[in-house]
Design brief:
The protein is globular, with a radius of gyration of 17 Å. A six-stranded parallel sheet has the order 3-2-1-4-5-6, sandwiched between helices. The protein has helices at 13-24, 36-43, 61-67, 93-120, 136-140, 151-170; strands at residues 4-8, 28-33, 48-52, 74-77, 125-129, 177-180. It is 42% helix and 15% strand. By secondary structure, the chain is an alpha/beta fold. It has six helices and six strands.
Length: 192
């Protein structure tokens, strides 16, 4: 039986590329997206199953039905939410909370829901796609002071890095957990 990768944020950008790459590499892929009809039109592979799921909500029966108890070999939490850059004094707290919901609570929801399926796989892996902009050390060094990045994105990615570290400690010896940044090579367990 082919290995199964579950990928969130699969409708566009990196997520869509990951779906295409894994399906072309003889994996079965479960593509999690808020807009499955768009992905279905683009996927073009019988190895790709799309499931409509907003990571801001608890996973529902559609995901459970699509999984049908099958082991999950790889979970890639790629769904991402930011907010427009705004000057201090005009930053909307709702934007920060929405980004934290998608970038932190979303991966936590999926890990908890899929944990039994992950533990059934012989060598499961979880990857949280992070960002170097979530690095407290780099931000404190002012490494990115020239970028106009939103508070929502930076705060939520820093929190996602802590989620990755916490999950890695909790799942130590059972499931490797990696934090990765698309612009940076190497695995740093969430400290990109």
């Amino acid at each position: 039986m082919k290995k199964l990768a579950v990928i969130t944020g699969a409708n566009r950008g990196l997520g869509r590329s990951l779906v295409q790459e894994f399906s072309a590499s003889s994996w079965n892929v479960m593509a999690i997206t808020r807009s499955p009809e768009v992905l279905k039109a683009r996927a073009g592979s019988t190895d790709v199953v799309t499931v409509q799921q907003d990571v801001r909500s608890e996973p529902g029966p559609e995901l459970a039905e699509a999984l049908n108890g099958r082991p999950v070999d790889l979970l890639i939490n790629n769904a991402v939410q930011g907010a427009p850059h705004a000057e201090l004094g005009t930053i909307r707290a709702e934007g920060v909370l929405n980004a934290v919901d998608v970038n932190v609570a979303g991966p936590l929801r999926l890990v908890q829901f899929l944990l039994p399926n992950l533990l059934e796989a012989p060598d499961p892996i979880i990857i949280n796609v992070s960002s170097r902009l979530g690095s407290l050390a780099a931000q404190a060094n002012r490494d990115f002071s020239g970028l106009s990045t939103s508070y929502a994105y930076k705060i939520s990615k820093a929190a996602q890095n802590m989620l990755t570290v916490s999950l890695a400690q909790d799942l130590h010896g059972r499931i490797p957990l990696l934090g990765s940044s698309p612009r940076q090579t190497g695995n740093s367990h969430g400290s990109n």
